[in-house]
Each structure stands twice: as C-alpha cells, then as structure tokens.
Task: inverse folding
C-alpha cells in the first residue's frame, strides 16, 4: 500500500493560483472554499523585500489533529495515509476546523453560486451543485483528499496536473525511488510548522 | 470571496456556541453553589431552591443552542456514542449525566420530602459533574490546536471562575426576583460578599489570561484584538465586571436590602459572562505559518462585498 504525499517546490512556485482554480474546477467548491490556497509572504523591509508564494492544502497529516477531535469518527485516515471525511457520519460541529492549525477545512451551509444572489442557477451550476452535494455535502466538514476520484482513475490530483511551473510533485513517500522521496532527501524537504506536531505529508522545498 | 488566510479570525463558532458555553457555565455554577448550600442547611434554603431551578433548565436550553449550531443536527446523537473520541463527545456525556443528576436533585428537593444520605450522594455526584461541565466548556476550546489564543492553558481556569460567578449572579437574580420577604438584608449581604470575592477572582484570572496570551506572538494578536473590542472593554470589563463589583460592595455595606441594585448587578454580571465567551471565541485566529524565514499570514485589506443584481451593467 502506498503512502501518498506531495512535495511543493517553493523555488518554482510563482503564485499564479492555477492550482486553486484547478481544484475549484475539479471539486466544484462554492465561494469561500479553497481546498488549495496560495498565501503570499514577505521578508525584508522596503526597498529590499522578497515576496514568496506558499501553496497550502490539507497536509494529510500522519497525526491529524482534526481526526483526534472528531466526536463521531467521521474523519478517518485511510491505509494510504489520505485523511477523509465520511459525510454520512459528520454532524457539522466544526470542531475539526478549530483543531486544524493549517486551516485546511471548510464547511458550508449550502452550495452558493458565484453570480449575484437572485439569479437562477445555470445548467453548469446545477451540475456543480449536485456534484458538490454528492461528494462533499452541505453542513459537514470538507477538505482536500488529494483528488481521490482522480487517483482511482490513475490520474494525478488536479492541482498537480494544472501547475504550469511543475512545482507540485505527487507520489508514494514510502517508495525511496519515487520522485517526492528523492526530492525530500536531496533538497532537504521541510514540513510546514513542524512544531504543531501533526507530521504533515506535504513537504516544501525551500526557496532560494 | 477571499480564501482563508492564516492569522485571520475564525468565523465558524459565533453567538450560538457562546450562548451554549455561557449557559453550560451558568447551569454548572448555579448547581454547584446550590448543592454546596444544601449541605450548609436550611438558612440557605432559598438559594438552594433557586440554584436547582436554574441548573437543569440552563443546561437543557444551552444544549439546544449547540444542536442549533450543528451543520447536521440530526446526527447529534452520534457524538454521545463515542465518548472517548473527543472533548465534544466527552462533554456530551458529562453534560448528559449532569443533566440527569440535576433534574433528579431538583425533583427530590422540590416535590418530595426525601432528605439525608440519598440527597447528599446525588449532591456530591452532581457537584463533581457540575465542575466537569464548567471545566469542559474551557477545555473544549483549550484542546483546539488551530487557535493559539485558546491554547495558553488558562482558558479552562477563566471559564470555571466565570461559570461560578455567573452561576452565583443567576442565583442572586432569582432570589431577588422571586425571594420576596425571605430575601432579607442578611442573605443579600452574604450573597453580595460572596459575589465580590468571586468577581475579584475573575478579574485576576482575566488579567493572568491576557498576560499569558501577550507572551506569545499569535495569541498576542488575539489579545490585542480582544482589548480593542468595545464590546469586551465596555460590555464585559466595565459593565459586566466593574459595575457589578461596585454594586455588590454597596449592597454589602448598606443597612437596607437593596433588591433592585442586586438584580441590576446580577443581570450585568450575567451579560458580562456571555460577552466574555463571545469575545474569546471571535478573537481566536489561525496560527501564522512559517517556512524558510517567511511568515504567511493575514494581509489587511478591505473586504469587497458580493455585487448585487443592481450593480450589474445595464443589459
């Protein structure tokens, strides 16, 4: 059984938000829900400043704090290490959202349109709403699951496929010959805020 | 809508959860004081009765607020089936047992002539679960890894102290409103003296909480935010703590029973307890993310409203 993980090369990421858009398209997430976010950071003071993009998604932690606090057992870790939410078991208490230090979880009362209130849903929106309700659901916790449905078809997560800079590398962390494993070892991959103690399976290669 | 940014305030838990935590605290505090008074004998009989009448209903109504906040309320029962999984599940169990005990105690006290060891056993067990309920409301927040402001370790202490204070004020309000002639000068002065001590203790606890928050960068920002909130400063610290403290001292030193002032002081104290919980909730923010010397957090910028139909260009 593989143990899926991701490497994000911060040298390559230039903050184009293609991953965010690809995720939204693939998962039909409503407004305000960003399973693949991009944060912008800054060091130095004017005029000697450097800006850096940081793509953030669910870290699929080895020790997920969201799972620890889930009162119904809806949040589970699969054998391949991907953390999932069983929407039929989730009661929507949002405690997992308070427990995730990476802010990777979202909950919406209902699927909303991007267009102004009061307009009827288009055919595409009707499809998106139905797809969201079937996969993720309203009134429950939702999060990135490394595009499980695409993995089942042998495809890469949508954010990985869409990245024009090839900054995202996905693979099996247990396989020492996989690209992510080699990159983590060779280029000193780091976890985000390891002091949280969640042991994320998303690694970052430091910027120059 | 902007994506979630670390450093921004949590918005998922608001007034409904604040009311739940508040009523849980009031119920636990009022019951604890009532049960302790029941051991002290008949002289405190009125406050025991009032406290028991507050404990169970407050918890029942509080639980309804929690259920109302759930995204899928029909699955609430699932939380009670896995008590070992999480603080919400443990809390559900603690509150459920406490509700049963407080209800039984109320019925035995009010509608039967049973006294002695049965009541005492129920009271002791009730006090244990009441303290558990009061502590749970703080531990629930303290166990949230994603909100550093709640994880300084002091929130459970603050909530236990505040629950005792609000429970005491709830009893005081009930006694002054429904006590009639039996709420004379001496009982009122005793309650005012107790309230004074408890409020002073709460002031010290709050100062300790804020001081602990100011020691670390992420909780510090939340502490600065809470101190910038008018609702917290005026609603809680001035009207909810300082004014009741002054009123309690006046009532204690007065030679006549000041029922009106006692009721006003108790009401303000209760309002303060609710505002405290709401402020602690809404000032909780996600931690800053760091990598390779870069800090990734909230950037201040005005929020753009979603355009209404009227804002679309003419067709």
Result:
């Amino acid at each position: 059984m593989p143990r899926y993980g991701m490497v994000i090369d911060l040298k390559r990421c230039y903050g184009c938000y293609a991953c965010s858009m690809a995720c939204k398209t693939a998962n039909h997430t409503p407004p305000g829900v960003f399973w693949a976010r991009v944060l912008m950071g800054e060091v130095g003071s004017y005029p000697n400043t450097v800006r850096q993009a940081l793509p953030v998604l669910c870290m699929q932690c080895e020790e997920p704090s969201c799972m620890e606090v889930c009162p119904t057992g809806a949040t589970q870790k699969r054998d391949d290490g991907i953390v999932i939410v069983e929407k039929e078991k989730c009661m929507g208490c949002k405690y997992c959202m308070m427990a995730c230090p990476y802010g990777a979880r979202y909950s919406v009362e209902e699927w909303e349109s991007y267009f102004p209130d009061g307009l009827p849903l288009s055919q595409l929106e009707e499809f998106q709403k139905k797809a969201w309700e079937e996969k993720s659901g309203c009134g429950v916790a939702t999060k990135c699951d490394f595009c499980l449905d695409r993995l089942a078809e042998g495809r890469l997560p949508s954010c990985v496929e869409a990245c024009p800079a090839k900054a995202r590398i996905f693979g099996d962390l247990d396989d020492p010959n996989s690209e992510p494993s080699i990159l983590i070892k060779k280029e000193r991959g780091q976890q985000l805020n390891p002091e949280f103690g969640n042991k994320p399976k998303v690694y970052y290669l430091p910027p120059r | 809508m902007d994506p979630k940014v670390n450093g921004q305030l949590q918005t998922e838990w608001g007034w409904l959860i604040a009311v739940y935590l508040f009523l849980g605290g009031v119920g636990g505090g009022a019951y604890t004081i009532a049960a302790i008074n029941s051991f002290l004998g008949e002289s405190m009989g009125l406050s025991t009765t009032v406290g028991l009448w507050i404990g169970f209903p407050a918890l029942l109504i509080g639980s309804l607020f929690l259920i109302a906040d759930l995204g899928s309320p029909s699955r609430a029962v699932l939380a009670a089936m896995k008590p070992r999984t999480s603080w919400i599940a443990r809390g559900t169990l603690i509150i459920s047992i406490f509700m049963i005990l407080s209800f039984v105690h109320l019925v035995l006290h009010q509608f039967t002539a049973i006294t002695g060891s049965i009541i005492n056993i129920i009271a002791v067990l009730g006090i244990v679960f009441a303290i558990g309920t009061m502590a749970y409301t703080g531990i629930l927040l303290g166990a949230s890894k994603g909100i550093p402001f709640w994880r300084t370790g002091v929130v459970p202490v603050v909530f236990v102290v505040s629950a005792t204070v609000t429970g005491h004020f709830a009893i005081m309000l009930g006694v002054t409103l429904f006590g009639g002639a039996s709420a004379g000068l001496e009982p009122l002065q005793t309650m005012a003296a107790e309230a004074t001590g408890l409020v002073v203790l709460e002031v010290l606890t709050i100062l300790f909480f804020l001081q602990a928050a100011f020691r670390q960068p992420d909780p510090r920002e939340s502490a600065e935010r809470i101190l910038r909130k008018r609702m917290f400063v005026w609603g809680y610290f001035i009207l909810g703590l300082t004014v009741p403290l002054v009123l309690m001292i006046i009532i204690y030193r007065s030679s006549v029973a000041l029922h009106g002032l006692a009721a006003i002081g108790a009401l303000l104290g209760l309002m303060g307890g609710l505002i405290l919980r709401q402020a602690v909730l809404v000032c909780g923010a996600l931690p800053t993310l760091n990598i390779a010397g870069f800090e990734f957090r909230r950037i201040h910028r005005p929020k753009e409203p979603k355009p209404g139909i009227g804002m679309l260009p003419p067709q």
